[in-house]
Amino acid sequence: MEETISKNFIEQIIEKDIEEGRCKKVVTRFPPEPNGYLHIGHAKSILLNYGLAKEYGGDFHFRFDDTNPTKEREEYVESIKEDVEWLGADYDGSIYFASDYFDKMYECAEFLIKKGKAYVCDLTPDEIREYRGTLTEPGKNSPYRDRTPEENLQLFRDMKAGKYPDGSKVLRAKIDMTSGNMNMRDPILYRIARMEHHNTGNKWCIYPMYDFAHPLEDAFEGVTHSICTLEFEDHRPLYDWVVQECEFENPPKQIEFAKLYLTNVVTGKRYIKKLVDDGIVDGWDDPRLVTLSALRRRGYTPDSIRKFMELVGVAKSHSSVDYAMLEYCIRDDLKLKRPRMAAVLDPVKLVITNYPDDQVEYVDVPNNQENEEMGTRKVPFCKELYIEREDFKIERPKKYRRLYIGNEVRLMNAYFVTCTGYDADEDGNVTTVYCTYDPASRGGNSPDGRKVRGTIHWVAAPYAKQAEVRLYENIVDEEKGVYNEDGSINLNPNSLTIIKNACVEPTLGEYKPGDSFQFMRTGYFCMDIKDSTEEHRVFNRIVSLKSSYKPN
Ligand code: ATP
Ligand code: MG
């Protein structure tokens, strides 16, 4: 095993805080907004925060950032829980909800008002925008900025009591309308909005804004290092202002890192939601998506995702990670752990003319050639088999080493066979291939040192089970880039190929939905957890066997 010696920049900050006595026990958090399913980017945040808490013997908080009732739903809360647990981020059974702090947040707002650090403003949203100025021009003070603390307190209490219509007043921080940082130009802390909240119902008609709520949530929970993504860098001065003016003793510290982006896939809840809403994919767990539920359904394992995050590392500047790297990680994880099975995706019949008609024999097949510990299994072999259509050619292409008339190949783990002929229908489609076998080559071993150059897989026809196989490509067209100029997605028309009549070896009948395997020569597959039944088995291809990516 390779040891990672150098610490990432977040670890360096934490270690310094510990050394210099600013931090006794590390507390991190993962704060999803329950407005969609989690995706691979969130997995990075989960594993990073959870990993740091573990590394430094601290606590990891799993908190729903549910302060905005418009887009949030219970369905999302459930799916997010499932995903966090699946990734193995142990949150000690307690989940935090930001909405549980609404009372405390309200108290903080009153505290700021009394200090003269917040005021109620009656400007309309348009006026507020106008007064805010631009990046090159300073803003102007609101005419309501100099209201006394007493007046502000009364107005704010009346806002809470429901005396004013939605949008007619806001509570603002009193900071600096000329600040070079737009976020510091008297940002809004509270707005009036009559909306039912999934946790607090109709108790509140005022809701805190994200930039006010988030630092408070962290501070209430004693979070020490609040790790977020780069788009919040410009908000850090406001984050610091909130925890400082609210006079917390050990205020949390915000640290930003770069979001994880993958090439040729759609990350971003907004875009994924659109694909789901438009019916382009079969729900949030469609295996072509990179939501965690989709990756799970496709057959990705938590270990493969952890491995991927280790390879990616933590950075301070944006870049896109090659999707092939994720594929490398799942291949690497399954390689020695999963059995290798025979499945013929595009079957054509092979008849061994000199094999006894009613004979069946059981050949020994290693479950995993690279891992002897996985043992062997018995697989039936007889006169009629299925092989892949592309393993026979009427005309031999250059360098082709599989079946063509006169050529000898190895049927994997069984016998050497020599092709003698074929039948075709009126359209020229091959219907049956004929061979003779060499009984002395049992087990696929050469009886006299003669070599064959091709090895193909097979399934005994009378014992084969029929299956549906789904092959996936990335959902976006790699050539064209992910998004069109108008913001729509460049869909890949070939992202899903359904094969209805694949034949799999009988052993596969013993497995359950969610189990995964290598299908020899064609890739890693997972029995679909949604659509697979005893009568109708469905296999998703997780990844093909070949890789374009090699780790350093
Ligand atoms: P999206 O951009 O997909 O809408 P979000 O940032 O709005 O995601 P939240 O629920 O607010 O989603 O995010 C929860 C946590 O996950 C935040 O700390 C956020 O910074 C982090 N996160 C979101 N997307 C990524 C990503 N691509 N890479 C790393 N961390 C991410
Ligand atoms: Mg968000």
UniProtKB/TrEMBL annotation:
It catalyses: tRNA(Gln) + L-glutamine + ATP = L-glutaminyl-tRNA(Gln) + AMP + diphosphate. Residues 25-335 form the Glutamyl/glutaminyl-tRNA synthetase class Ib catalytic domain. InterPro entries: aa-tRNA-synth_I_CS (IPR001412), Gln-tRNA-synth (IPR004514), Gln/Glu-tRNA_Ligase (IPR050132), Glu/Gln-tRNA-synth (IPR000924), Glu/Gln-tRNA-synth_Ib_cat-dom (IPR020058), Glu/Gln-tRNA-synth_Ib_codon-bd (IPR020059), Glu_tRNA_lig_a-bdl (IPR020061), Rbsml_bL25/Gln-tRNA_synth_N (IPR020056). Signal peptide: none annotated. The keyword Aminoacyl-tRNA synthetase applies. GO terms for biological process: glutaminyl-tRNA aminoacylation. Residues 455-528 form the tRNA synthetases class I (E and Q) anti-codon binding domain. PROSITE patterns: AA_TRNA_LIGASE_I. Keywords: Aminoacyl-tRNA synthetase, ATP-binding, Cytoplasm, Ligase, Nucleotide-binding, Protein biosynthesis. GO terms for molecular function: ATP binding; glutamine-tRNA ligase activity. One of its GO terms (cellular component) is cytosol. Residues 339-438 form the Glutamyl/glutaminyl-tRNA synthetase class Ib anti-codon binding domain. Its EC number is 6.1.1.18. NCBIfam families: glnS, PRK14703.1. Belongs to the class-I aminoacyl-tRNA synthetase family. This is Glutamine--tRNA ligase.
